[in-house]
Design goal:
Blueprint (H helix, E strand, L loop, with lengths): L1 H12 L13 H12 L13 H13 L10 H6 L20 H11 L13 H13 L10 H9 L18 H11 L4 H12 L19 H12 L7 H18 L4 H10 L1 H7 L3 H16 L2
């Protein structure tokens, strides 16, 4: 089994060419994205897709350290990345306190399987709890250690964070009822969803902003694509219900990314998660967050 783990780690990274966009995603790329983010060279989502931002970040890093800027995360590039550049996922059992590329990959894989874990390369207690939950759900020994058996199961399961059952009943029709419906389906506090929707649009389905944000949740086209392609892995109807569903799924994603902190998640919604991590909440962001939380307290 240990030999297969090493083979998995090496085979999935060997010849990893970032110049070609990986539409299906490669979990190992999540490790690269976390490392590039630590150097301030990648500000996109940790989505395991070698898109243009990842390519640019890799080449910029290679130029910075004097390597050929070929966009390939080869051994020399990974060594230059330092502690976050190694080891490749699958080469060692992972446990609380570990740090590195493989921890980032583990966290990404757990997150895409519905576990509330950060994706930043350090195996903390939240990651351990998420791993234990995942292990229990798969009938594995819930020891909080990503050993050979756990890694093997993670490696062969397709990532998915579609939290909704195929047997979800038909949604209601009114905006307020739809907000509550999708909030309950995805496990987000209905009061928070309603407050955010009221702040964004006043529950107006036909609202379109100058930036192209649409509908009750004021969803940008780029956000819709991210939710459909990465979080749900399915197309969502372009309807009032679909707009709300997209918004709720993205809000849940931000809540997970910011460890359940509603204020930080709302700030990331308004300002962008990368900007919040780099600069903290801007003045206008703080006002937006305060307004949404006030609306939640008032019970809109």
């Amino acid at each position: 089994m240990a030999g297969r783990l090493v083979a998995f780690g090496v085979a999935t990274l060997a010849g990893l060419t970032l110049a070609a966009v990986a539409h299906a995603g490669n979990p190992q790329i999540a490790g690269l994205q976390v490392a590039l983010r630590a150097y301030g060279l990648y500000h996109g989502p940790i989505d395991a897709i070698a898109g243009p931002q990842t390519v640019r970040g890799t080449k910029a890093f290679q130029r910075r350290v004097g390597l050929a800027a070929d966009g390939r995360a080869g051994p020399a590039t990974r060594r230059a990345l330092g502690p976050l550049g190694a080891p490749v996922f699958g080469r060692r059992p992972l446990r609380c306190g570990h740090f590195g590329w493989d921890v980032s990959v583990l966290q990404f894989m757990l997150a895409t399987r519905g576990q509330l874990v950060p994706v930043y390369g350090f195996f903390d207690r939240a990651t351990e709890r998420g791993l234990r939950r995942y292990q229990r759900s798969r009938g594995l020994l819930a020891d909080g250690i990503a050993g050979p058996q756990t890694i093997s199961v993670l490696a062969r399961r397709r990532s998915s964070v579609s939290f909704v059952s195929r047997r979800v009943p038909a949604p209601p029709t009114s905006v307020r009822a739809l907000l509550g419906h999708w909030a309950r389906v995805y496990g987000v506090a209905p009061g928070l969803v309603r407050a955010l929707a009221w702040m964004e649009s006043g529950f107006q389905p036909g609202l379109v902003s100058k930036a192209g944000a649409r509908g009750v949740m004021q969803v940008l086209p780029i956000t819709r694509r991210y939710v459909e392609r990465i979080l749900l892995r399915e197309r969502v109807p372009n309807s009032v219900s679909g707009n709300i569903r997209i918004g709720v799924v993205y809000l849940r994603h931000l809540l997970r990314e910011f460890h359940g902190n509603a204020s930080h998640a709302l700030a990331a919604w308004y300002q962008g998660p990368s900007s919040v991590r780099r600069h903290g909440q801007l003045k206008e962001t703080k006002q937006f967050v305060a307004n949404v939380l006030a609306l939640r307290r008032r019970g809109v």
